[in-house]
Design brief:
By secondary structure, the chain is of the alpha+beta class. The chain is 29% helix and 31% strand. The protein has a single domain (2-86), classed as 2-Layer Sandwich (Alpha-Beta Plaits), CATH 3.30.70.1060. Strands 2-3-1-4 form a four-stranded antiparallel sheet.
């Protein structure tokens, strides 16, 4: 599997009922745990004071990442994503041969 740096920004559409937002956020939490257990979500952070997420995600390729992994998130229809493919750096202290 390949690794990707993914920046996700969620924008709730105007007029969306709070109950729908709460339902999707709860389902998002469940789905994130499932994706982590499957090896697709490696790490996830929220920059201090910001309403976006930055994470390391894994998939066979970018189409799979977009369509099957990120596309399975309940909040995906409200998200924009910046996806950057990653490769190991020769000086990475966590690099394995």
């Amino acid at each position: 599997m390949k690794e990707y740096l993914v920046e996700l920004t969620t924008t709730v559409p105007d007029g969306t009922e709070q109950a729908e937002v709460d339902r999707r956020r709860a389902a998002e939490s469940v789905r994130a745990r499932e994706l982590a257990a499957q090896g697709n979500l490696f790490r996830l952070w929220r920059p201090v004071g910001e309403l976006r997420s930055v994470g390391i995600w894994c998939a066979e390729d970018e189409p799979e990442l977009r369509e099957k992994v990120l596309g399975s998130l309940p909040l995906w229809p409200w998200m924009t994503a910046v996806i950057t493919p990653l490769e190991s750096h020769p000086n990475d202290p966590g690099r394995t041969a």
